[in-house]
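FIELD: query
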Amino acid sequence: MTYERINMRRVVKLVQERGMAAMLEHTGGGVWTIFAGSVRHEPGFGDRWAAVAGPGVVEGEARYVGYPVDFYVGPDDSGEARPLAVGDLAVASDEDVAALIVAQARQADPAVPLSVEQVWALGLDGTGRGVRPV
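FIELD: result
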């Protein structure tokens, strides 16, 4: 069975159940984004979260969904670092997406995306195709 849709509201709840701040926010143009972890102020920009995940859309009865093929998890840095593409990972559930968000939000440096080794340690190898770090 292929993991086809990310239930963004459920992911937010799972992140919150791990004791971490998380919210789902409309970020323009019909796009919804998850923000999680601590918030830091960046001069010249404003507030940034430790982790950001998306994009998602509203589908049907106010369901907020993301599609693994184009869903990313990374630092809140306006796309400067390369976020993790969920579709390239061995992600099989909303729990896996929540685990990625929590791991990203717990990075010592919130501007650094998760490494392949960190993804592998979560049980989600870096490509979803059996490649392991050397």
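FIELD: remark
Residues 10 and 94 are 7 Å apart (CA to CA).
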